[in-house]
Design goal:
Helix content: 25-40%
Number of domains: 2
Strand content: 15-25%
Number of helices: 13
Order of helices and strands: HEHEHEHEHEHEHEHEHEHEEHEEEEEEHH
Radius of gyration: 24 Å
CATH architecture of the largest domain: Alpha-Beta Barrel
CATH topology of the largest domain: TIM Barrel
Number of strands: 17
Bound molecules: pyridoxal-5'-phosphate
Shape: globular
Structural class: alpha/beta
CATH class of the largest domain: Alpha Beta
Distance between the termini: 61 Å
Length: 428
């Protein structure tokens, strides 16, 4: 069971709201740190273990800096993400550039900052060489294709994914790089997303260890680092269970001893690129109930909308909801909890049993710390909200201000005009 609690009381939240109006995202710094330490502890046995935080999950340099202090690097896939990492002081091989469909200038920036470049396709070797040159260390992203045969433990459908090199291509790719004089090699894969089965991650490691051995036997290349990607899930629903990181760490350790140590390939650095599990459960979207309407169904309209958290509308994802001060009330009302977009899928919850909600109630949406604010957009003229950090001592600081109308209009080169409302008032 994933307990769905909030790290603040109603009174605390009310005083935060006096200074920072809803809607906003708020991140629990101590919980993020504790969680990061748990992941690192599970792999404390592993040589050179490194977690590269997938920046796309929570692209805020204040968050990246906290993670850096815990010894975590960055997984980037765009120029902006490289700059965010640099702002947080994460540079060099503390960055892996796991991009796809990448423009030359982004490869150039990744090379300039000293990041490990992880190529997504065999044709990208020529592209990289032509535009930026061959770097000192190179990584390839492996796509194992169909995993349904072979009795493996991995859940996922890599054959449907646009990423990576096929089994045949991967050996050729290392050979090409070897012939070009490259001496340092990494191997990457990411076959799962939001997965809660620990066995899947052990299965992925086994597959990668086997491939490291095959590459060594066929090409004489000693891979120095494997990257198992991200994909560790978040127990969004209260009845779900978080991945047991120690179980995963120990399972991978056993496979490492059997496949890597036993074949004389120790040390092999093990790395991951988790994003969602690092910040997801420790961010909350805080909003206020604006409207209540009763037609064929009962609706609660919030001051937040899909522009603040797109996952429910995009994937039909469940996000737990707490109505502040009503945690112990019976869940005897059924609501659709909506935002204000002119899109009927702008709903945070459908047919959700909740306590009776009144206008003005503070409604907290859980597990919004990853792919929440990050996926924000401006459709319907909606503005992205602020991001706040709840620090270990209970104080709060703003780590990104809310957008203003000036931000919305900043990209338009058009004669400014006053809002009709303002003009109408003036004429009176
Ligand atoms: C999204 C992504 C990750 C992180 O995935 P999570 O599910 O957030 O752990 C890691 N690597 C790559 C290449 C990604 O695209």
């Amino acid at each position: 069971m994933a307990e769905k609690t909030v790290p603040f009381t109603k009174a605390q939240l009310e005083s935060i709201i006096q200074k920072y109006p809803t809607p906003f995202h708020i991140y629990d710094e101590q919980a993020i740190r504790d969680n990061a330490r748990k992941l690192l502890a599970a792999f404390s046995w592993a040589p050179g273990f490194k977690e590269y935080f997938a920046v796309k999950a929570t692209p805020n340099p204040h968050i990246l800096k906290i993670l850096k202090e815990e010894g975590i690097g960055a997984d980037c896939s765009s120029l902006a993400e490289l700059i965010l990492s640099q702002q947080a002081g994460i540079v060099g091989e503390n960055i892996i550039f796991s991009s796809n469909d990448t423009p030359a200038e982004e490869y150039q920036a990744a090379k300039d900052i000293g990041a490990i470049i992880n190529l997504d396709d065999i044709t990208h070797i020529d592209y990289l060489e032509k535009h930026v040159g061959i770097p000192e260390i190179i990584s390839f992203r492996y796509n194992p294709g169909s995993l349904l045969q072979g009795g493996n433990d991995i859940i996922g459908y890599p054959e449907e994914a646009k990423y990576g090199l096929t089994r045949e291509q991967i050996l050729s790719a290392y050979k090409i790089m070897q012939d070009k004089g490259v001496k340092r090699f990494a191997l990457h894969t990411m076959v799962m997303s939001n997965e809660l089965s620990g066995d899947s991650f052990i299965g992925t490691a086994v597959m990668m260890f086997d491939l490291v051995l095959e590459i060594y036997q066929k090409l004489g290349i000693r891979i120095e680092m494997i990257d198992l990607g991200g994909g560790i899930g978040v127990p969004y629903r209260p009845e779900q269970q978080a991945v047991d990181l120690d179980f995963v760490g120990q399972g991978i350790r056993k496979a490492y001893e059997e496949k890597i140590v036993a074949n004389g390939l120790h040390p092999l650095n093990i790395t991951m690129e988790c994003g969602r599990m690092i910040t997801g459960p420790y961010g909350y979207l805080v909003s206020t109930a604006l409207h209540k309407k009763e037609i064929y169904k009962n609706y609660i309209g919030l001051d937040a909308c899909m522009a603040n958290l797109m996952r429910p509308a995009l994937y039909g994802s469940y996000h737990h909801i707490t109505v502040m001060g009503k945690e112990e009330y019976p869940l005897d009302h059924v609501y659709d909890v909506t935002g204000s977009l002119c899109e009927n899928n702008d709903k945070f919850a459908i047919d959700r049993s909740l306590p009776k909600i009144d206008i003005g109630d503070i409604v907290v949406i859980h597990d919004a710390g990853a792919h929440g604010h990050a996926m924000g957009f401006n459709y319907n003229g909606k503005l992205r909200s602020s991001e706040l950090l709840l620090k270990a001592d209970g104080s709060v600081s703003m780590i990104r201000r809310a957008e203003t109308l000036a931000d919305y209009f900043a990209t338009l080169d058009f004669e400014t005009c006053e809002l009709p409302l303002a003009a109408a008032t003036k004429n009176k």
